[in-house]
Amino acid sequence: MTSSATSFDAKKDLIYKKLREVKRAFIYGNGAYEDIIKDSVKRLLFDVGILSETYAGAMEIVAFDREMLEDSLVVIVDFSEDARSEELMFQIASIRCIKLIIGSEYKSMTKSDYNIFLAEEEREVRLISPYIIELEKFFIEFLERESNDIDELS
After folding, report:
1. Most buried of the four, 32, 33, 58, 70, by CB within 10 Å?
2. Residues 28-56: pLDDT tens digits?
3. Can you name the residues that pair with 27 across neighbouring β-strands?
4. Given this model, what pLDDT does residue 1 score?
């Protein structure tokens, strides 16, 4: 295991620990691909016991305020370098919440807690299933760790 893999695992461990405390999540994204991923994230969050709401569009960005977002999970889905997503990331940068970014790799430079970016081939049809599979793996691992932690306490 390399040091970068070790730091990645440590970062993931920290996200999972923080995720245990989350009671609500906010999912933001504009566009057809984003809607598919947002629906998948909402379903997976429901499966792990976290209630979530989805948002899209400029008018809904104003709904995100510090008090509402404290100790929550904010998921931003963006495959099109949407200016509103950038604005939201800037808006929440200093708020104590988990920030999960899914989509275009250019977002990796933002201040997020966890990113899901996949190398994509140049093609006319964007494949969404690899992102859904990665999300499923992320939440399955979260549930497995939760189960192991509960077993260790017993």
Report:
1. 33
2. 998 899 999 999 999 999 999 999 999 88
3. 54, 75
4. 42
By the 8 A CB rule, do 85 and 29 touch?
A: yes
Q: Which residues contact 145 (CB under 8 A, 6 or more apart)?
A: 16
How far apart, in whole angstroms, are the C-alpha atoms of residue 3 and residue 126?
A: 33
Query: How would you list the strands of the sheet with 51-55, edge to edge?
Result: 51-55, 24-28, 73-78, 98-103, 114-116
Per residue in 52-87, pLDDT (tens digit) is 999 887 777 777 788 889 999 999 999 888 888 888
